[in-house]
Amino acid sequence: MLSIVLVLSLGSAQGIGLKAVGGGVGFTSVSFTSGASTESLSGLSLSGQAYMGDVAQNIGLYPEIVYWSASKNLGSGVDWSVSDFAINANARYNINSEGNVKPYVGAGLGINFLSTTVKMSVPFFGTMDVSGSATRFGINLLGGAEYKLNPSFSVLADARYVLASDFNHLMVRAGVMYALK
Predict the structure, then answer these.
(1) Is the CATH number of domain 19-68+89-111+135-179 1.20.120.30?
(2) Residues 81-127: pLDDT tens digits?
Protein backbone atom coordinates (compact mmCIF):
# COMPACT_ATOMS: atom_id res chain seq x y z
CA MET A 1 0.00 0.00 0.00
CA LEU A 2 2.85 2.36 0.83
CA SER A 3 4.38 1.82 -2.63
CA ILE A 4 1.05 2.75 -4.29
CA VAL A 5 0.85 5.99 -2.28
CA LEU A 6 4.49 6.73 -3.17
CA VAL A 7 3.88 6.11 -6.88
CA LEU A 8 0.76 8.29 -6.89
CA SER A 9 2.46 11.15 -5.04
CA LEU A 10 5.50 10.98 -7.33
CA GLY A 11 3.18 10.81 -10.32
CA SER A 12 1.53 14.11 -9.50
CA ALA A 13 4.88 15.78 -8.86
CA GLN A 14 7.04 14.32 -11.66
CA GLY A 15 4.64 13.37 -14.48
CA ILE A 16 4.84 9.65 -13.70
CA GLY A 17 2.58 7.48 -15.82
CA LEU A 18 2.52 4.21 -17.71
CA LYS A 19 5.26 4.51 -20.37
CA ALA A 20 6.01 0.87 -21.29
CA VAL A 21 4.93 -2.69 -20.46
CA GLY A 22 6.72 -5.97 -20.80
CA GLY A 23 7.38 -9.43 -19.51
CA GLY A 24 10.06 -11.99 -19.11
CA VAL A 25 10.98 -15.56 -18.39
CA GLY A 26 13.90 -16.81 -16.36
CA PHE A 27 15.55 -19.19 -13.96
CA THR A 28 15.28 -18.96 -10.17
CA SER A 29 17.46 -20.65 -7.59
CA VAL A 30 16.29 -20.48 -3.97
CA SER A 31 18.13 -21.38 -0.78
CA PHE A 32 16.06 -22.27 2.25
CA THR A 33 17.63 -22.33 5.70
CA SER A 34 16.07 -24.43 8.40
CA GLY A 35 18.05 -24.67 11.61
CA ALA A 36 21.61 -25.68 10.75
CA SER A 37 20.86 -27.07 7.27
CA THR A 38 20.38 -25.31 3.94
CA GLU A 39 18.52 -26.75 0.93
CA SER A 40 18.66 -25.35 -2.60
CA LEU A 41 16.22 -25.81 -5.46
CA SER A 42 15.63 -24.16 -8.81
CA GLY A 43 12.88 -23.62 -11.33
CA LEU A 44 11.16 -21.38 -13.85
CA SER A 45 10.12 -17.76 -13.26
CA LEU A 46 7.65 -15.56 -15.17
CA SER A 47 7.37 -11.80 -14.79
CA GLY A 48 5.41 -8.80 -15.96
CA GLN A 49 6.62 -5.26 -15.50
CA ALA A 50 5.91 -1.67 -16.38
CA TYR A 51 8.02 1.44 -16.83
CA MET A 52 6.39 4.36 -15.06
CA GLY A 53 8.87 7.10 -16.01
CA ASP A 54 11.83 8.71 -14.31
CA VAL A 55 11.64 9.95 -10.73
CA ALA A 56 15.04 11.68 -11.09
CA GLN A 57 17.69 11.96 -13.78
CA ASN A 58 18.50 8.42 -15.05
CA ILE A 59 16.40 6.79 -12.30
CA GLY A 60 13.30 4.98 -13.56
CA LEU A 61 10.46 3.37 -11.64
CA TYR A 62 9.66 -0.26 -12.62
CA PRO A 63 6.84 -1.98 -10.72
CA GLU A 64 6.48 -5.69 -11.46
CA ILE A 65 4.89 -8.97 -10.57
CA VAL A 66 6.90 -12.18 -10.54
CA TYR A 67 5.88 -15.82 -10.16
CA TRP A 68 8.34 -18.65 -9.76
CA SER A 69 8.08 -22.29 -8.84
CA ALA A 70 10.77 -24.79 -7.92
CA SER A 71 10.75 -28.40 -6.80
CA LYS A 72 13.15 -31.09 -5.70
CA ASN A 73 13.03 -34.81 -4.98
CA LEU A 74 14.59 -35.26 -1.54
CA GLY A 75 14.75 -39.05 -1.88
CA SER A 76 12.90 -41.79 0.03
CA GLY A 77 9.63 -40.84 -1.66
CA VAL A 78 9.72 -37.21 -0.50
CA ASP A 79 9.14 -34.32 -2.96
CA TRP A 80 9.39 -30.67 -1.97
CA SER A 81 8.02 -27.71 -3.94
CA VAL A 82 8.13 -23.98 -3.31
CA SER A 83 6.39 -21.17 -5.19
CA ASP A 84 6.37 -17.40 -4.83
CA PHE A 85 4.10 -14.66 -6.11
CA ALA A 86 5.89 -11.32 -5.59
CA ILE A 87 4.79 -7.74 -6.06
CA ASN A 88 7.83 -5.47 -6.42
CA ALA A 89 8.57 -1.77 -6.75
CA ASN A 90 12.05 -1.40 -8.27
CA ALA A 91 14.07 1.65 -9.20
CA ARG A 92 16.73 1.37 -11.91
CA TYR A 93 19.67 3.68 -12.41
CA ASN A 94 20.38 3.77 -16.14
CA ILE A 95 24.12 4.09 -16.68
CA ASN A 96 24.98 6.61 -19.40
CA SER A 97 26.42 4.80 -22.41
CA GLU A 98 26.73 5.23 -26.17
CA GLY A 99 24.65 3.11 -28.54
CA ASN A 100 21.54 1.00 -28.15
CA VAL A 101 22.71 -1.05 -25.16
CA LYS A 102 21.75 0.61 -21.87
CA PRO A 103 23.22 -1.04 -18.75
CA TYR A 104 21.51 -0.50 -15.40
CA VAL A 105 21.72 -1.29 -11.72
CA GLY A 106 18.88 -1.05 -9.28
CA ALA A 107 17.17 -1.91 -6.06
CA GLY A 108 13.64 -2.30 -4.82
CA LEU A 109 11.25 -3.57 -2.24
CA GLY A 110 8.78 -6.39 -2.61
CA ILE A 111 6.26 -8.50 -0.85
CA ASN A 112 6.61 -12.25 -1.42
CA PHE A 113 3.68 -14.63 -0.96
CA LEU A 114 5.39 -18.00 -0.53
CA SER A 115 3.86 -21.45 -0.59
CA THR A 116 5.55 -24.74 0.11
CA THR A 117 4.39 -28.35 -0.11
CA VAL A 118 6.05 -31.58 0.95
CA LYS A 119 4.65 -34.80 -0.56
CA MET A 120 5.71 -38.09 0.92
CA SER A 121 4.82 -41.73 0.58
CA VAL A 122 4.01 -43.32 3.89
CA PRO A 123 3.90 -47.13 3.92
CA PHE A 124 0.37 -48.49 4.56
CA PHE A 125 -1.11 -44.93 4.43
CA GLY A 126 -0.31 -43.83 0.86
CA THR A 127 0.68 -40.32 -0.16
CA MET A 128 0.61 -37.51 2.39
CA ASP A 129 0.82 -33.76 1.65
CA VAL A 130 1.96 -31.12 4.12
CA SER A 131 1.52 -27.51 2.95
CA GLY A 132 2.27 -24.11 4.36
CA SER A 133 2.45 -20.49 3.33
CA ALA A 134 4.24 -17.37 4.48
CA THR A 135 4.58 -13.74 3.56
CA ARG A 136 8.04 -12.19 3.43
CA PHE A 137 9.16 -8.67 2.64
CA GLY A 138 12.13 -8.63 0.31
CA ILE A 139 14.91 -6.36 -0.87
CA ASN A 140 15.75 -6.70 -4.57
CA LEU A 141 19.28 -6.01 -5.84
CA LEU A 142 19.50 -6.08 -9.63
CA GLY A 143 21.67 -5.34 -12.63
CA GLY A 144 21.37 -5.87 -16.35
CA ALA A 145 21.11 -4.27 -19.75
CA GLU A 146 18.36 -3.23 -22.14
CA TYR A 147 18.85 -3.24 -25.92
CA LYS A 148 16.58 -1.03 -28.01
CA LEU A 149 15.57 -2.90 -31.17
CA ASN A 150 13.50 0.04 -32.48
CA PRO A 151 11.59 2.98 -30.95
CA SER A 152 8.87 0.64 -29.63
CA PHE A 153 10.60 -2.64 -28.66
CA SER A 154 13.50 -3.43 -26.36
CA VAL A 155 14.94 -6.71 -25.12
CA LEU A 156 16.53 -7.01 -21.72
CA ALA A 157 18.54 -9.39 -19.62
CA ASP A 158 19.16 -9.05 -15.93
CA ALA A 159 20.11 -10.83 -12.75
CA ARG A 160 18.87 -10.11 -9.28
CA TYR A 161 19.31 -11.32 -5.76
CA VAL A 162 16.29 -11.12 -3.47
CA LEU A 163 16.85 -10.96 0.27
CA ALA A 164 13.63 -12.34 1.78
CA SER A 165 14.49 -13.64 5.24
CA ASP A 166 14.88 -17.44 5.00
CA PHE A 167 13.88 -17.58 1.28
CA ASN A 168 16.73 -15.67 -0.36
CA HIS A 169 16.86 -16.33 -4.08
CA LEU A 170 18.80 -15.56 -7.25
CA MET A 171 16.95 -14.87 -10.51
CA VAL A 172 18.30 -14.58 -14.05
CA ARG A 173 15.82 -13.53 -16.74
CA ALA A 174 15.36 -12.29 -20.28
CA GLY A 175 12.43 -10.22 -21.41
CA VAL A 176 10.91 -7.63 -23.68
CA MET A 177 9.50 -4.13 -23.20
CA TYR A 178 6.98 -2.37 -25.45
CA ALA A 179 6.87 1.43 -25.32
CA LEU A 180 3.38 2.91 -25.23
CA LYS A 181 2.81 6.04 -27.27
Answers:
(1) no
(2) 889 999 999 999 999 888 889 999 999 999 999 998 988 887 787 78
Per-domain boundaries in the chain: 19-68+89-111+135-179
Rounded Cα–Cα distance for residues 61 and 57 (Å):
11
What's the pTM value of the predicted model, to 2 decimals?
0.82
Residues of the chain above pLDDT 90, percent: 61
